[in-house]
UniProtKB/TrEMBL annotation:
Extent of Polar residues compositional bias: 75-87
Domain spans labelled HTH cro/C1-type: 11-66
Lineage of producing organism: Bacteria, Bacillati, Bacillota, Clostridia, Eubacteriales
UniProt region (Disordered), positions on chain: 74-93
GO molecular function: DNA binding
Superkingdom of origin: Bacteria
Species name: Candidatus Avidehalobacter gallistercoris
Xref: PROSITE patterns: HTH_CROC1 (PS50943)
UniProt cross-references to InterPro entries, sorted A to Z: Cro/C1-type_HTH, Lambda_DNA-bd_dom_sf
Pfam families: HTH_3 (PF01381)
Residues that span the membrane, as ranges: none
Protein name (database record): Helix-turn-helix transcriptional regulator
Length: 93
């Protein structure tokens, strides 16, 4: 599974767990519904870190936890490594 698919899977899983519709998540995270739908559909090639942070805030989770959980579902890239992010910087945003 590609990392962007893992992001989509995680967003949907968190919405299900919390009983949120995509519309409600878009509303509480202040992210346009069209942007959220593009991320879910895999049409957003690389969702921005600020967008993901806003969605995580709306879900009440940290970006670091979200990325960590998504990484467990993403398959390694050709280099054999999964994408890594500077979690400390992401948490400060």
């Amino acid at each position: 599974m590609e990392f962007r698919e893992a992001i989509s899977r995680e967003l949907l899983a968190h919405c299900r767990e919390q009983g949120l519709t995509l519309g409600r998540l878009a509303e509480i995270s202040n992210v346009p519904l069209s942007t959220l739908k593009n991320i879910i559909a895999g049409q957003s090639r690389n969702p921005g870190i600020l967008t993901l942070k806003a969605l995580c805030n709306g879900l009440g989770i940290t970006l670091a936890d979200f990325i960590s959980r998504a990484e467990t579902f993403a398959s390694p890239r050709t280099s054999g490594k999964t994408p890594q992010y500077n979690r400390e910087s992401a948490e400060k945003e």
